[in-house]
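Two proteins follow. First one:
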Amino acid sequence: MAVEDAAALAETLALVSNKSQIRHAVDIYETERMKRAYGMQSASLVNGKLWHFADGGEQEARDKGMLAEVQGTYYSESTNQWSDPVTQNWAYGYDAERAIKEAWNLNTSAS
């Protein structure tokens, strides 16, 4: 997250063309980064619960959902969210600079 923060901040500052835009730029940066941070925090809380099921039905369902991954065979989804392809793309394929540019274009043209 810190690397994303740095990339997003650098992009935000690069988009500022005069001092009067600084407050607007900081607002965009803060809004975009908070959305991302809250999303990652939420995913981390789910992950914490997932790994601490007591022995029983929930734990067995979780383990069954990870079976292909554990066996090293192809899988398109996993109950291990950090191995799940959709979650991996969301977590590791995120482009912080692009997100800032898009937010800037959306919020600057509207203001």
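Second one, unrelated to the first:
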Amino acid sequence: MPTKDRPKALNTLGTLAHHPDLARAYFTFNGHLLLGTTLTERQREIVVMRVAAVRKSSYEWYQHLFVARDAGLTDEEVGRIAYGPDSPLWSPLEAALIRSVDEMILDGGISTATWQVLATEFDTRQLLDLVFTAGGYDILARLFKSFELTMDDDIPDLMSRYHELYPAQGRCASD
């Protein structure tokens, strides 16, 4: 995962520094979500970006916009994540990933219909990683909102160079 020209999440780190034991435990958990998951990077970032969209967490959205692009999502796909699962351009699995996030956040769990789609593609470990990824990033979105975290200072500069960092591939012709 590249670190140059990527957000540093300093406001998150600064907030969690007030509780070192919790920070250590959460970073271990989050390390699995980022690096040890059985989901592909693309699947993970679809889930994370959908959590950010549903929770209206601009902090989480901008932190993971770069990670999502590094995972191979295009600008158009990132925009579709915010729109939701009903775009005909999503594969059935990707639509189910997005729908599962909506259901977990809004209903507390994944519906039988969505679960059946996911279970045709995922084994139990992947299903566990899906639930814990959505839950882990939902916790972060709640942290960001509750502590009223503001955008990190590096985000405006990175966004001003976004199209330099991610050239036209996958962008709409009008960009």
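SUMMARY FIELD: Residues 98 and 157 are 30 Å apart (CA to CA). The domain at 40-160 is CATH 1.20.1290.10 (AhpD-like).
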